[in-house]
Amino acid sequence: MAVQTKVAERIMVALDYADGAQANELVKALKGIPCYLKVGMQLFYSAGPRFVLDLKEQGYKVFLDLKLHDIPNTVKGGSESITRLGVDMFNVHAAGGKQMLEAALEGVDKALSSASGSAKPMVIGVTQLTSTSQAVMNEQIGILGSVEAAVLRYAGLAQAAGLDGVVASPLEVVQIKQAYGAGFVTVTPGIRPAGAAIGDQSRVLTPAEAFAQGTDFVVIGRPITASTDPRAALESIIASVIGANN
Ligand SMILES: O=C(O)c1cc(=O)[nH]c(=O)n1[C@@H]1O[C@H](COP(=O)(O)O)[C@@H](O)[C@H]1O
Question: Does ipTM surpass 0.90 in this model?
Answer without folding.
Answer: yes
